[in-house]
Amino acid sequence: MLRVAVPNKGSLSEAASAMLSEAGYRQRRDSRELVMVDPDNDIEFFFLRPRDIAVYVGQGTLDVGITGRDLLLDAQVEAEELLPLGFAASTFRFAGPVGDFSGVEQLEGKRLATSYDGLLRDYLAERGVKAKVVRLDGAVESSVRLGVADAIADVVETGNTLKAAGMEIFGEPILKSEAVLIRRTGEGGAANGTAKEIDVLIRRLQGVLVARQYVLMDYDIRKDLVEEAASLTPGLESPTVSPLRDSDWVAVRSMVPKKETNRIMDELYDLGARAILVSSIHACRI
Question: What is the pLDDT of residue 157?
């Protein structure tokens, strides 16, 4: 039975469970459940703190897990990213008092507060910057005002919290993170003979990602305009073209990016396409 770690709370939790549900896996109904078995898919889910998931997977206790890329790198364990999942996006950046810093080289000899000390130490070492890293579990933005640090490295979304604390972002992003599927590296990477089950999980999650990003578009078009219409809706490989009762017309079906749906519909209509219909994709395999 495949053993999968899922975030039990926070920004990763609901989105991860929703994605697994869309992929056809049973998920818990009570947030107090710590373990849930899905016998139909021969899989067992363990609901854990997001920060601990990389540790369990890296030690081979669990086969795969869903966590943040930042948490994976910060844990410094023998685990690797298998698949980016497209949610919980964030950026890890430096911030300091307004006007004090403009680049990472100015952090030499300074005190840096962060909740991601492993990730930050590696980043500084790669750039030859020697600074004192102060690990905090939360409220990192308060550390400068309280005299614990000279600057911070933290996850930034809107930046409003930093502005309220009298700080500003500086330098290039340290890391762009999102939710990822991970597994153990090296020996035991596919522990307990679960390589096939992991491949199935990956395909299902990829199917959800594609279904979220694309829609199915159908339309009728004159035969002599098919090539031009197909250039607007090329699909993933090639559109499906079917004959109609009127031999001068054909029906075309193709997958198109969801965010471009209305633009493509307008261009098809201007070209001469009619009966343009759009349908959601609930699941797929590519």
Answer: 73
